Amino acid sequence: MLATYEGEDGPCAGAVIGDRVYPLEALTGKSAHGTMLGYLADWDAGHASLEQALDSVPKTRGVPLAEAKLLAPVPRPAAIYCAGANYQDHVAEMNARQNRPPDPDPHTLGLKPWHFIKASTAATNPNAVVQLPKASKAVDWEAELAAVIGRTAKAVPASRALDCVAGYLCANDLSARDLGFREALPATNPFRADWVAHKSFDGSCPLGPWIVPASQIRDPQSLGIKLWVNDVLKQDSNTGNMIFTLAEQIEQLSAGITLHPGDVILTGTPAGVGAGRGEFLKPGDVVKVWIEKIGTLVNTMA
What we know:
The chain has seven helices and 19 strands. It has 302 residues and is an alpha+beta fold. The longest helix is centred in the first third of the chain and has 11 residues.
């Protein structure tokens, strides 16, 4: 597993081996691997060097994982792409909340995946305290599987899209539901939506706790995904319930945008969000996101 942790001189890229974290730079012998972005930019060679180094890791070096301050694996992603309305059960619960009829499968309408973008300052650390925006009274949780790009991708077909993925991690797409629209404008006004206030406030994208290399996840469309608020289970699903697969998402994104190493893609959230049940986060709430074969991401609201 790959992590970024607080080193003596600032953020340091590391490999989690057993119960310790080792600096990638020391393991691979390449100074460029001191940061996660540097390592991802050299993914093919870096991953090969790391695999070779694993047989001779000095057991007395490294930082005990229990003592390490883990940071967002990619501390400041150049781009965070987020899939919207990508689990059928989530779409159904939001439609029911607004008394709308069920939507047909977008595939049958010839539709493609659609995404919005979060600011790089939205990314925050595992175990970090997230400051809820003062302007919102309806901040929601959204457990999501995230993928990190490891190879530059442009116009990549779905059949080869997963070759561009370096690895996977947990994400929480925190959303200020009551800031998503400019209420002074009528519903028919094309400028009514406010995706920045809704989705991009500081700390609105907890990431972590680490990156599991893609080689260790055989099928990203077959992973259990759960979320708890204060140990009460709210979301319980499987990534197999996505409407558009990660491969389809990469195909669509890369058709118009060049994806670069270190870019993060959030793949959508299943049913069980707060908006579907009229519940929202408050100061002191502890949110846990768990994804099978990856781990658990924990954050506290304030």
